[in-house]
Amino acid sequence: MGTREVYEEKLRSGNFLHDPTINPGLGSARCPRCLSLINPNSGNAEWTITSVLHDATAVAGSGAGAMLSAVHGFNTGIPFVQRHVQGPKWLQFLVGIPPLLMFSGASAALGSYAVPKFAQLSVTSYYTASSLSHYAISQITRYVEDTYTCQNLHDEAG
Fold this sequence. Notes:
By secondary structure, the protein is mainly alpha-helical. Helices cover 72% and strands 5% of the residues. It has a two-stranded antiparallel ribbon with strand order 1-2. Strand 1 (38-41) and strand 2 form a beta hairpin. Mean pLDDT is 75; it is low at 18-26.
């Protein structure tokens, strides 16, 4: 999880509480669902997925987009071509395949763009919700502790 150097750096910076980690104070931040490394992006103050997770989701999105569009294209596009192009089967196939390949390629490109963006959205929204709930809990705890302290001071004085 972490090395001595990472721990010493955390000690020097004093930043134990702001990095969500599996083992607080050590190592790098990880997604609690998939344990993938995530990086706090200090430029725009948000959590970003690592390049490995981005590339993996891009490959998965590309494959899923291409496969789904190819199945849809063969089920709807080829019958459309067969109705409108008269002639032998090889001619219908020759006319129908280029648009099918273009549709499949466009869907693969869309999938390789959209799936990593969705992964980024889910990571960012998870950490936003997590930090808001931690803030709310700390505010409630502070209120309870202050009330308890004031009540004890009042009891001792009275």
